[in-house]
Design brief:
This protein is of the alpha/beta class. Among the domains are: 87 residues, ATP-grasp fold, B domain (D-amino Acid Aminotransferase, Chain A, domain 1, 2-Layer Sandwich); 134 residues, Phosphohistidine domain (Glucose Oxidase, domain 1), CATH 3.50.30.10; 307 residues, TIM Barrel (Alpha-Beta Barrel); 42 residues, no CATH class. It is built from 35 helices and 33 strands. The strands form seven sheets. It has an eight-stranded mixed sheet with strand order 14-24-23-16-17-18-19-15. An eight-stranded parallel barrel has the order 26-27-28-29-30-31-32-33, surrounded by five helices. Helix 20 links the parallel strand 26 and strand 27. The structure holds phosphoenolpyruvate and magnesium ion. The site of magnesium ion has 4 residues, from helix 30.
Length: 885
């Protein structure tokens, strides 16, 4: 007989995949003796079977729940539906990976017309009993009966208006009773049957509804966004209720063991007196900071902070804790590893290691490499003069500007059309997820640091200001006002998520300064990683930036970027249009000194480090005006009859552009095929590199140029170019009377090159995987078209799991890489091998590069820190790290 239900004391943190995160942690907290209200967890396996059997509860589950409920009832000394002593329970979802607010929760289950009276009698508090009941009807109707929430909210607001009160807790017992009746009538009217009275029926309906909520729209969007497997299913936690809404000696709160925004080691969170859990998270009332609890309930605060420390020590990580105080007694309702900003993540990992709670390697594993990107977020220039409209809570750092939008659909629409928007809402709900994704930043008028908007924005690294009550939003008029200033939809507003400021108009921003903890952690990463990290840099400025970020060399210098610009383009065009070799040589002679000075600058900036310079790669027509442009211009010139000279030259150009036109330029006359057809172009570039290297060597600067041939398919191509490289290098050294070290090698960008890597290795000192081209040619997906056209269909339908242009396709492209590494090294054991496609700065791909034994990864300068950390994580997780442990 399968076991689907586990009482809390039967589980533990290690059973996460079966019990979900929440269930496993409730069990763990029970195990270590913390005050957790008793309960049970229905496993994720039961949910999976529910879906596999066409949405039927698995056989035996109902009996198992009932059996365990009896144990639970004995344990608590109350019974579900018992009029003398009723047990009330919560029914909550709990997935394996945290999906905050994405699925459903039902509180106060077990209430009906009988038990509500018992509750009133037992607590001596009629208001409390009625308030709990009306909340239950509201939640149950929304989640289980699928009657829209706002229909109930509407009745509630009307009632508050009628009673002349602002807050829910100001409603009298009579008003609450009337609300219950109105809610029930609404249910009856919509469903044609009354609200269920039988607690056992309520329970089974609720369990099934939680299973169903696994596949609600927002949960699916969230899983797609966070790459969570759709087949995992959710667990269901059934727990005896404790009440934070029993008066002023009760309350409920959410707290982090450290500040999740900055990482500072102080208890951080907020609570509400006389409230139930969802009031804090939903952001309906703006809660008080946790430090105030020390004044209001000192003993509870003391106990809570001790438990918080215990949990942090136990889990060796920042904890995000939910708690409730019922009549002065503290209960723990949840703990989980807390989401944090990148900045806080760094500081927390660093501090936990320095406090001796974890090792340095564990500290490195605690940081999500991709998050380092957020650290490089721009901030508002502190010198700037700002019109600060209002201040709210600093919910997620970074600065953002955009036009104000009040609606998530609209935010998504404008965002997709490339506009920058700022999403402004009273509060956000999980239904706003698409708007948040599309927005540059989020501003809410209500809700605290743990409200939905704050949590989601922090996770995404988006700036967010919450609880900015000074702004009054009028959705109907599509505007908000602050002290008489009216801001309309479409107006430009900026937010400063680190300081909580709301600013009128655009603001000047500046690059961030990196913390000392960040530098320390990256130095720990450097101690343990095996992969070298280089940067892709095309200019001396980029090379210097790359050095600043810790790159140990240039892995790819794309020389074509040097051919652009007003000064150079005419010579490049002359070179392309040349009818004879002499004419071409003349144009190349003009370009030579310019190229030489480029290489001189880059090699100097990277003194002592290797610089891999790629010979010209793109098709030549990229340097000429577009066909369409020329057609329009020649037609106009012809029509007007003016400027006959210009018409002639434009017609000449048009003929050349037509001649160079290719149906498939990515597979056309590009890469080293250019060097085969026009060897003088490559010779000029090789000469420029050698001249720069010779001059710098003479000046005593150590240079390590690596001359790279792109898009090869065959050893004979390399033989052809290597002869030129070696000859020119020798001649230049003789001419300058110096020697310098240089090497020559090839990019591996085409499947044939990977398959014949052993032959290529005979004539190459190094390989560098150009995985942008290797991906496009292995999958046959045009890199310019796939993403905009059909790739999203492949991802939505899960034909491909990841975008192969972002995350390396290990099975296909990766296999070719493995073949190339193995064949290449067989012929030349000391062959230097790296990667310089976009994947070189993506954590998962870096891990793969480590696993297959590459020597280096190369990526854009801003992603160098990510690659350094990812390389360290790869070394640690494969057990190959060395140095500091
Ligand atoms: C590549 O193909 O991966 C590469 C680095 O070259 P490019 O992107 O310039 O084609
Ligand atoms: Mg390429």
């Amino acid at each position: 007989m399968a076991k689907y239900v586990y009482l809390f004391h039967e589980g533990g943190a290690e059973m996460r995949s079966l019990l979900g995160g929440k269930g496993a942690n409730l069990a763990e907290m029970t195990k270590i003796g913390l005050p957790v209200p008793p309960g049970m967890t229905i496993s994720t396996e039961a949910c999976r079977e529910y879906y596999e059997s066409g949405q039927q509860l698995p056989d035996g589950l109902a009996e198992e729940i009932k059996r365990n409920l009896v144990t639970l009832e004995k344990n608590v000394g109350k019974e579900l539906g018992n009029v003398d002593n009723p047990l009330l329970i919560s029914v909550r979802s709990g997935a394996v990976f945290s999906m905050p607010g994405m699925m459903d929760t039902i509180l106060n289950l077990g209430l009906n017309e009988q038990t509500v009276k018992s509750m009133a009698r037992l607590t001596g508090n009629l208001c409390f009993a009625y308030d709990s009941y009306r909340r239950f009807i509201q939640m149950f109707s929304d989640v289980v009966l699928e009657i829209p929430k706002h229909d109930f909210e509407h009745i509630l607001s009307k009632e508050k208006e009628r009673q002349g009160v602002t807050y829910d807790q100001e409603l009298s017992a009579d008003a609450l009773r009337s609300l219950i009746d109105q809610f029930k009538s609404l249910v009856k009217e919509r469903l044609g049957r009354p609200f269920p009275e039988d607690p056992m029926e309520q329970l089974f309906m609720a369990v099934e509804a939680v299973f169903r909520s696994w596949n609600n729209d927002r949960a699916i969007i969230y899983r797609n966004l966070n790459k969570i497997d759709h087949n995992l299913g959710t667990a269901v936690n059934i727990q005896s209720m404790v009440f934070g809404n029993m008066g002023d000696d009760s309350g409920t709160g959410v707290a982090f063991t450290r500040n999740p925004s900055t990482g500072e080691n102080v208890l951080y969170g907020e609570y509400l007196t006389n409230a139930q859990g969802e009031d804090v998270v939903a952001g309906i009332r703006t809660p008080r900071p946790i430090a105030k609890l020390a004044e209001e309930m000192p003993a509870v605060y003391q106990q809570f902070s001790t438990i918080a420390r215990t949990l942090e020590k136990h889990y060796k990580n920042l904890q995000d804790i939910e708690f409730t105080v019922e009549k002065g007694k503290l209960y723990m309702l949840q703990t989980r590893n807390g989401k944090r900003t990148a900045q806080a993540g760094i500081r927390i990992a660093h501090d936990l290691a320095m406090e001796g709670l974890i090792s340095k390697n564990d500290a490195l594993l605690l940081i999500e490499a991709a998050q380092l990107d957020h650290l490089l977020h721009r901030q508002i220039d502190s010198e700037a003069k700002l019109t600060v409209l209002a201040k709210g809570l600093p919910a997620s750092p970074g600065a953002a500007s955009g036009q104000v939008v009040f609606d998530s659909d609209e935010a998504e629409r404008l965002g997709k059309s490339g506009q920058k928007v700022l999403l402004v809402r009273t509060e956000t709900t999980p239904d706003d997820i698409h708007g948040i994704v599309a927005a540059q930043g989020i501003l809410t008028s209500r809700g605290g640091m743990t409200s939905h908007a704050a949590v989601v924005a922090r996770g995404m690294g988006k700036p967010c200001v919450c609880g900015c009550e000074a702004i009054k939003i009028d959705y109907a008029k599509q505007e908000f006002s602050v002290d008489g200033t009216v801001v309309k939809a479409g107006d430009l507003v900026s937010i400063d998520g680190a300081a909580g400021r709301v600013i009128l108009g655009n603001v000047p921003m500046k690059d961030p300064v990196l913390s000392k903890e960040y530098l320390t952690l990256l130095s720990w990463a450097d101690d343990v990683r095996r992969l070298q990290v280089r940067a892709n840099a095309d200019t001396p400025e980029d090379a210097l930036k790359a050095r600043e970020f810790g790159a140990a060399g240039v892995g790819l210098c794309r020389t074509e970027h040097m051919f652009m610009g007003q000064e150079r383009l005419p010579h490049v065009q002359q070179m392309i249009l040349a009818e004879t070799t002499e004419e071409r040589l003349e144009a190349l002679q003009a370009l030579l000194p310019m190229q030489e000075s480029d290489f001189y600058g880059i090699l100097k900036a990277m003194a002592g480090y290797p610089v891999c310079i790629r010979l010209l790669d793109p098709p030549l027509h990229e340097f000429l005006p577009s066909l369409e442009e020329l057609l329009v211009e020649t037609a106009t010139l012809r029509a007007t009859g003016q400027e006959p000279e210009r018409l002639r030259s434009r017609e000449l150009l048009l003929r050349k552009v037509r001649a160079l036109h290719e149906f498939n330029p990515m597979l056309g006359h590009r890469g080293c095929r250019l060097g085969i057809s026009f060897p003088e172009i490559y010779e000029m570039q090789i000469q420029a590199i050698c001249n720069a290297a010779a001059r710098l060597s003479k000046e005593g600067v150590q240079v390590l140029p690596e001359i790279e041939v792109p898009l090869t398919i065959d050893k004979s191509e390399m033989v052809f170019f290597k002869e030129k490289i070696d000859r020119i290098a020798q001649e230049t050294m003789q001419q300058y009377g110096v020697t310098f070290h240089y090497t020559s090698g090839t990019m591996i960008e085409l499947p044939r090159a990977a398959l014949l890597a052993d032959e290529l290795a005979e004539v190459s000192d190094f390989f560098s995987f150009g995985t942008n081209d290797l991906t496009q040619t292995t999958l046959g997906f045009s890199r310019d078209d796939a993403e905009g056209k059909f790739l999203s269909d492949y991802l939505n339908l899960k034909i491909l799991k990841d975008n192969p242009f972002i995350t390396l396709d290990r099975r296909g492209v990766g296999q070719l890489m493995q073949i190339a590494v193995e064949k290449g090294r067989r012929v030349r054991p000391d062959l230097l091998i790296g990667i310089c496609g976009e994947h070189g700065g993506e954590a998962n791909s870096v891990q793969f590069c480590h696993e297959i034994g590459l020597d280096f990864v190369s990526c854009s300068p801003y992603r160098v820190p990510i690659a350094r950390l990812a390389a360290a994580q790869a070394a640690i997780s494969t057990g190959e790290s060395y140095g500091t442990r």
